[in-house]
Amino acid sequence: MANDVIPLPAALAAVWGAFLYEGLLAHIPDKERNQQILDTWNQGCVELVIAATAFLPEVWHQASTTWEGLEQDLPGVFEYEVISPLGVYLGDYLLFHDGLLPDVDTMKRVIHAFIRDFFRQQAA
């Protein structure tokens, strides 16, 4: 991470954590899916939330460097369009990869794609 990037503010981390959780375990009103995710993870709900939120500083790093030079408002609601879908992605990944989370490099690419797509809305 670049030295000139401000660390993820705690208040924003809390909001993003809530939206990440929503996408991961609460977005789809399908209790079976939620239980399948937890069963596949097999390390506890709190541990899953801790592991998933560990990716948020990378989201902050990529997003803040992207919107740093923007001269206009964000093209949508970042939490709805990036953070929550990122949680859905993590849940799906767990289900299809025997309870494993993606590695850091994979997550960097996935985060980049979500952020890129979010900011492309501006051009449309």
Relevant terms:
mainly alpha; 124 residues
Report on the architecture of this protein.
This protein is mostly helical. Helices cover about 70% and strands about 0% of the residues. The protein has six helices and no strands. The chain has helices at about 10-25, 30-40, 45-55, 55-65, 80-95, 105-120. It is elongated. It starts with 9 loop residues before the first helix and ends with a helix.
Which stretches are low in confidence, meaning pLDDT under 50 for 5 or more residues running? none
- State the total count of DSSP E strands: 0
Return the string of H and E elements: HHHHHH
Strand content: under 5%
* Largest sheet data: none
Structural shape:
elongated
Radius of gyration: 15 Å
How would you concisely characterize the structure shown here?
The chain has 124 residues and is mostly helical. It has 6 helices and no strands. The model has no long low-confidence stretch (mean pLDDT 90).
Q: Could you give the topology of this structure?
A:
Layout (H helix, E strand, L loop, with lengths): L9 H17 L4 H11 L3 H9 L2 H12 L10 H19 L7 H17 L4
Helix pairs in contact: 1-5, 2-5, 4-6, 5-6
